[in-house]
């Protein structure tokens, strides 16, 4: 079974003041932190060899989950002393990764079929596979188009934009780590751009459901409401 790297070392600045005393993966949904739901999802599909990249307020995570035995998994902590960005965090776990592995963000709720995701990666023979979700947003303002002389040609009132977004779940081959520099702050998009520039193949796996974002205060509040609604149905 594949090893799993969970990225949980970020500062969570968009969720302040909530994250002044709790790292974002430890924010509660009901009586449990977000990261516990992530572990539960991984264990459901048999992925129990877990490496958690920790940094900011790391003791909160380590003291809650310990070695993972209480949650049915084995946890190894990979510590960084300063913020490193998503890819920088991943690079810190490189010594443990010699074969195909999973990488997931520890501050997002997932509920799609993880085994099918891994199987598709292998079927496509990709160097990396990214889980993608459809997203659309209506802009707050309208766009006005003018010609070279400055005369208005078109008025698009609050247009809608749509596309595919990265939801923070990947299957990767170890070669991806070669495109992340050592010891510097580095984002995942830069690592993947480096991979593509060097002929790497990245597959986009589209999921239609099974993803809840808590990236900012608005989305966290929405996730909490959805949790309460689901709890109500269970009770």
Radius of gyration: 20 Å
> Can you tell me the CATH topology?
Spore Coat Polysaccharide Biosynthesis Protein SpsA, Chain A
> Which CATH C-level class is it?
Alpha Beta
**Helix percentage:** 25-40%
What is the arithmetic mean of pLDDT? 87
Contiguous uncertain segments of 5+ residues: none
- What would you call the shape? globular
In whole angstroms, how far apart are the ends? 35 Å
Secondary-structure element string:
EEEHEHEHEEHEEEEHEEH
Q: What class would the helix/strand composition place it in?
A: alpha/beta
Oligomer: single chain
CATH superfamily grouping:
Spore Coat Polysaccharide Biosynthesis Protein SpsA, Chain A
Number of domains: 1
Describe, in plain words, how this protein is organized in 3D:
28% of the residues lie in helices and 31% in strands. It has helices at residues 34-44, 58-65, 85-92, 114-124, 188-197, 217-234, and strands spanning 3-8, 28-29, 32-33, 49-54, 74-79, 101-105, 108-110, 128-138, 143-146, 152-156, 160-172, 202-207, 211-213. A seven-stranded mixed β-sheet has the order 5-4-1-6-11-8-12, with helices on both faces. A hairpin with a 2-residue loop joins β2 (28-29) and β3. α3 (85-92) crosses α5. The longest helix is centred in the last third of the chain and has 18 residues, at 217-234. The model has no long low-confidence stretch (mean pLDDT 87).
